[in-house]
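Hi support team,

I'm opening this ticket because the web form for multi-chain structure prediction keeps timing out on my end. I have pasted the exact lines I submitted so you can reproduce it. The total is 656 residues across two entries, so I didn't expect it to be a heavy job. Is there a limit I'm missing, or should I split the entries? Thanks in advance, R.K.
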Amino acid sequence: MQSFSTINNYQNPSEEGYYGEFGGAYIPEMLYGNVETLRKQYLQIMQDPIFQTEFQQLLKDYVGRPTPLFLAERLSKEIGATIYLKREDLCHTGAHKINNTIGQIILAQRLGKKKIIAETGAGQHGVATATVCALKGMECVVYMGEKDIERQAPNVARMKMLGATVIPAVSGSKTLKDATNEAIRAWINEPIETHYIIGSVVGPHPYPDMVARFQSVISEEIRKQLKEKTGTELPTHVVACVGGGSNAAGAFYHFLNEPTVELVAVEAAGHGVNSGLSAATTQLGTHGILHGSKSIVMQTQDGQVVEPHSISAGLDYPGIGPLHAFLYESKRGTFLSATDEEALASAFHLSKIEGIIPALETAHAFSVLPKLNLKPTDVVVVCLSGRGDKDLATYMQYL
Amino acid sequence: MSRLELLFKEKKERVLNVYFTAGYPNLDSTDKVMSSLQSNGANIIEIGMPYSDPLADGEVIQTSSIKALSNGMTLTVLFKQLANMRKSIHIPVILMGYMNPILQYGFEAFCKKAKEVGVDGLILPDLPLFEFEQFYGKVIKHNGLDFIFLVTPETPPERIKKLDSLSSGFLYAVSSSATTGKDKDFSKVASYLKGLQNMQLKNPILVGFGIKDKTTFDMATAHTQGAIIGSAYIQVLSKGGDIEESTRQFLNGVLSI
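Hello R.K., no limit was hit. The queue was backed up. Here is the completed structure from your submission:
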């Protein structure tokens, strides 16, 4: 029933957006026009040299790319392998999210859109969207779960200062899933002049592929930088946290078809995978449809989406991008998880031994390093997807 | 000939389809709501299968869905409630809902069961054309169910023709691009509906989204065979009065001439 022709090519979903059996575009007719326009044009626009010139220029001069690949010596010594940190936390606005929003805002201009809407969990994508809207003089509305507005107050203030309107999502669990629902509904209500900048590799095709391509600059740089530092482009492991999975998709992208590189995705286990308060989607989910694509979804036997839990708003999501669902099912990716407690411990530990305060989301990725049975010859790249300023209120409770 | 085809053969104007959420206001109110709709002038009953994340629905139907789910509604429960409906319900009954709960039930099992209890057709707003043609459409047809696609004012004419050709029973014209339950400026909707009518489509057209009372029903049905009311009826049910009585008052108002 779906095209399986792409089964060994993780970088290119089928024309209808399938990675194996995951993906597609399960959307109401009201969104068809917008999504179809994107589907027909995104690759062409992204490959246009004029688009690329502007995109690359902004990544360099505005975002501050390339971001450093930092050899974490004390961490390496402790773990017993060579650990590099890809410093996405040093991007303008403090996380990798802006790689995608820069790309999508130029694309939205090309499509003649006047207004931008976005969903946000931790607020990093909301800030990154508000930022590029300010840069380009476009109206910006960000949907954010009411619960996340409370726990990510600094980012809410930043979005407002950047001129965005933040609308609380009050339905369901009042977190990222519900913010995404509200953003999609807003798009249905105003389809002509609005572009929806989805922040992760989720949503109907072509979003998962488009966002992965915009984020792929992360692994493009890793290859180049690793070659300069070690003489080889390929690490043994790439480790990244996964909610929807955008930083992981970007960090994995140029290694997807390199079978010697182990791709490690770290989900949020919340209070523990089997505690009933978790967001470890691949461990707890089954095949389903959420936010317009077929993937792995945390749901009841009756197909109702369940409310996840994670201490990190950015990973508090009951789904996962279709690319990651395919990496999981095809066993190309190694999927592990870290609890709230482990992530907190990692955040404090990394701060003390490397002088880097990571975002709570990112901290999950560090928690699995001791569990990977690494050898001294292993070269590991951890995607340090975001910085921890936004999480200080949480961290302060544990000081 | 399907019940929907028969209906439109006999009644060519002012066909009224009323939506309600299964399990709302109470888990076991399904029977009562259906019989009240039938006896007070509804021509089609559209049963909403509640889902936790209904993307095309506004607040009213979201709220009724959450309530219905907390009341314990599931597809299994719904099919049990509908098992004997054809002893008393003679008008067409269609199921409206989202793909995810149906996939968990099993798509083929769902279609088979729907047919078995006497359901006539399906509206699945997040089942797109591509997927329908690849796989799901065959299962639906094989089980003898009608399938109703949605078209909007932004749907290009070629696509309208295609969606019409794959639909049976009727074609669902969304009055404007919006989620359910939003008020509309119907003066703008009129030219869109006239345009649709002039396309000489295979199916009758029912207009939905924003139809809430006599005025909007009259406007919508001036150019098409009928209209669909959803959120406005849910609001009536939410007031908690006697279901039969409040349904009678509401439908009398809508259908008065």
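A quick check on our side: The first strand of chain B starts at residue 15 and ends at 21. Let us know if the file doesn't open in your viewer.
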